[in-house]
């Protein structure tokens, strides 16, 4: 199971990086003045929120090859997790930006900054502390969702446990160990989040 845990950590970290980058960009776009882009982001978020993560995993794994994108199971899993999580992260970023007092934007515009500059250099830095807790919760959900990738035969933690259970017929012991592995991974992520929050305080 240790090898499965390493795969879970690897795939989760890759998905976190992609989801955070895409989510921040989409969050910035969602508060921009470009209406067509805002509408596209809203439609994307609506789809992500309204469909199960498992369905999104299947769509990425089976649909992308049909349009010419051949990905390994590992990278299909990364894309699926990132696709799902980025939608929620974009909403977290949007909410964080909009929670900053409007006077900050007015002051930035008054000294000659553009809307884009005020968002990037005034609003975004101030919103970091506010978005860190919900962002951590979303990244924890991403780690938990990685267990769904067992359905596309990725040898992550849950899949590894299932294989061992099929060989040893000891489901209780293996699923208990599985829970411990996830608790350790998520506890480490929570500790890191608390450390970052204290640094931003």
TrEMBL record:
A single GO cellular-component term on record: ATP-binding cassette (ABC) transporter complex
Subcellular location: Cell inner membrane; Cell membrane
CDD domains according to UniProt: TM_PBP2
InterPro entries: AA_ABC_transptr_permease_3TM (IPR010065), ArtM/GltK/GlnP/TcyL/YhdX-like (IPR043429), MetI-like (IPR000515), MetI-like_sf (IPR035906)
Membrane topology field: Multi-pass membrane protein
TM regions (residue ranges): 6-31, 43-64, 174-192
Gene3D superfamilies: MetI-like
Any one biological process term the GO annotation gives: amino acid transport
PANTHER family listed in its UniProt record: GLUTAMINE TRANSPORT SYSTEM PERMEASE PROTEIN GLNP, MEMBRANE COMPONENT OF AMINO ACID ABC TRANSPORTER
Name this polypeptide is given: Amino acid ABC transporter permease
